[in-house]
Task: structure prediction
Amino acid sequence: MGERAKRSEKYALCHVCGSTEFSHSVLREAFEIERKHLLVKNIPAEICSRCGERIFSRETTEKVRLIVHGKTKPVKSVSMDVFAY
Result:
């Protein structure tokens, strides 16, 4: 599908700005669950072409929920530097 804006069959209307134009993307999101930091990569999303709102399907949202609550094993672990502002 690429990054070209198009009318999405799944999402007829952006709930933020009302646009009907979306582009498909694959994102990464960081979560903090019970003081533990997690990164989920390769999350499919539709991006509103007007305001940039990220929209996830119900199936995607449920799969991410299961991932961050320990229902799957991570593909790798990394250490992370933490800075105070």
